[in-house]
What does this fold into?
Amino acid sequence: MRAPRSWFTGKARADVFDAKGVVEGVVAALGRGEVGVEPTEAPFLEEGRAASVLVDGTVVGHLGELHPAVREAFDLQAPVLVSELSLDRLEALPGRAIVYRPLARFPAVARDLAVVVPDTVPAAEVGRLIEAGAEPCLRRVTLFDVYQGEQIGRGRKSLAYGLVYQAEDRTLTDSEVNQMHAQVIERLRTTLEAEVRGADRSGP
It folds into this structure.
C-alpha cells in the first residue's frame, strides 16, 4: 500500500500504487528482488493504466486497471485494480535472504519530495537515485503520487515520494534529517537536472 495502515489514514480511492504495493508485499514474502513497473499494453487492462511487473529486470506479470469491456462483461460498476504474477518465473529467480530488524525504539521522521522530470524518465530510476546515496538513516522510500498537467508543462511529470528517516540508537535531530534530505535533493538536481521540492510531513 502507499502508506501503512493506521487510525489516522483517511479513506481514498485505491489506484495502481496500491496494486504495486500489494505486489511488492508478495514478492518480498517470497524473498525475491526489487519490484519495478513499466508502462505496457494488455488486452484485459485499460489503455494508459497498464504496467508490466519486473523483478530485478525480469518481467513476471502485469498490473493495472481492468478494461471497461471486461468490467461490463462481469457487470462491475466501479473501476477494478488487478494484478497477475507468474509463480514459475518468480521461483526461477535467485532468492534473497530475509533480514529481520528489531522493533524501532526511536521515532521516525517523514519528509516528502516532489520531483519534476521529463515524462520519459522512469519513476523506478528516480527511486533508485534517491536510495543511491545510502544515507545511513534512510529507511523507506515510497512513491505515492504521479501528476501530469498544465501546471508543470508539457512532456513533464511530477513524482511525489515519501521518505522515512530513522536511527536505531538515538532520536534524530532536525539538523541531521535536514542534512541527509538536502543530500538527496542535491543528488537528484545534479544527476537528473530535476526540479525538486521538499516538505516536512509528520508521522512515520
In short: Residues 174-192 form the longest helix (19 residues). The radius of gyration is 18 Å.
